[in-house]
Amino acid sequence: MKRVRTGIKGFDDLIQGGIPENFSVLVCGAPGSGKTIFALEYLYKGAKDFGESGLYVTIEESPDKLRDQAVQFGFNFPALEKMGKIAFLKIPIDVHSFDLVRAVEAAVQRTRAKRVVIDSLSILDINSGMYSIPVKVMPDKDRFYSNDTMQLRDTKGDVGKQFVYLFINRMLDLGTTNLFITDSLQNEGPYLTRDTVSEFACDGIVKIEMKEFGKTMVRTLEVKKMRNTKIEPGLKTMKIEQQGIEVTEFSY
Ligand SMILES: Nc1ncnc2c1ncn2[C@@H]1O[C@H](COP(=O)(O)OP(=O)(O)OP(=O)(O)O)[C@@H](O)[C@H]1O
Ligand SMILES: [Mg+2]
User: Fold this and answer.
1) What pTM value is reported for the model?
2) What is the SS3 assignment for 99?
3) Domains, the chain, ranges and CATH?
4) Which of 90, 97, 150, 236 is 20 to 30 A from 244, comparing alpha carbons?
5) pLDDT in tens, 181-201
6) Is the CB of 92 under 6 A from ligand 1?
7) Is residue 74 in contact with ligand 1, taking CB distance under 6 Å?
């Protein structure tokens, strides 16, 4: 099985060297926990060190803000964009029936991306009524979409769940290795995420948290799930350093 190295210091060793190719990984955490920086580094290292092009699909933040965020850590996105190794795709939130899957698919084909980031599923969940999903001619006939799209209808108030589930599923058809960013719930109940389905739909889960230990706040990272992989279990410390993220044994 081919593994996709993130290049994030100390992270790949937690998952036998990398994310299995064509997997979908949920990166969940509270606002400000470092999800976007994690995803930016995944694409940057992919393009710069591993020769894999990347596509950053952003719903909330403008590409310019993301470039500014990245350059703080020496991740020069514009240079890689000029070489065609990284691209941003900004998704509108207020275009009725916007065909999100085809928009991402077209961008992946155009850029030959091997790595895709979706930032974030939580916003897609909130706006799910605005998007349409391509209908397949035959179930699981991988890429054969008909010309029709369907708009999910609110039947039991769970359009968001259905949309998120189908979207994660469709993104796997692209053959890329995908990170889906999502907000975690403040008061954890039985579910990690608000949509309650992405944690089951994804092949892997990485949870980032800000935790209080005594009087110290520590940023922690935990791989909660990675199919086909022996995980190094438990909480790790995640530091945001000048050169990017560093995952180390837990300490405070
Ligand atoms: N140059 C830096 N050095 C160290 N830490 C930084 C630096 N820049 C940002 N941070 C930290 O990273 C956090 C923001 O990270 P990021 O944008 O990845 O969070 P996020 O989880 O995506 O948040 P949101 O859910 O709001 O999008 C800031 O709150 C700050 O603590
Ligand atoms: Mg973010």
Assistant:
1) 0.94
2) strand
3) 3-244 (3.40.50.300)
4) 90
5) 999 987 778 889 888 899 999
6) no
7) no
